[in-house]
Amino acid sequence: MTSSRTPVPANTTGPGGTVLVHGKDTGAPPGHTLRVYADLRCPFCKRMERGLGPVMEKLAEEGRVTLEHQFATFIDDGAGGTGSLRALSAVGAASDAGAATALRYIRSLFAAQPAEDDDAFADTGVLLRLAEEVDGLRGPDFDRKVTEGYYLPWARRVSAAFETSGVTGTPTVVFDGRPVTVINPMGYAVTPEAFLAELNLD
Hints:
The chain is of the alpha+beta class. 44% of the residues lie in helices and 14% in strands. The chain has a six-stranded mixed sheet, with helices on both faces. The model has no long low-confidence stretch (mean pLDDT 94).
């Protein structure tokens, strides 16, 4: 590559492409935005994704919301390692294969999330193996970008954008600028019914 510009994955928006987006090009008129702030090593984010990720994806695919993800990597600093950053870089490579594909890869990462003090996502082999669970993702382009850390500069930019976002913890979900509850007082995801009632899309 001869350009000094930081490469940016497809299906991103915002300054420097720091926000992954799904549902923006459904043909529906401009409407609601659901923004998810998460860290791929965050155990509470895993709980949220397991309980509500498919619900959010369905809303986006139906054109009822534009689903946005803005990722943090602060657990790398707190627990040590580079797993959040390297997993995020791999998510960027997955986004080049399609917004829906990136969501399914994110789900695969959360499903296999190691203990918070285990930096398994820093291992390229782990990131590639988990991509095998997403139909059509593994291939020369994706594998090269993950192996070479092609989107690591972008991932650092995404992390820096989170630091200046005003959001102080993950998971945080904001609907049209209004925070909504995704984790209950016991530390688990709220029910899909409670989540949809709070969005009040009907």
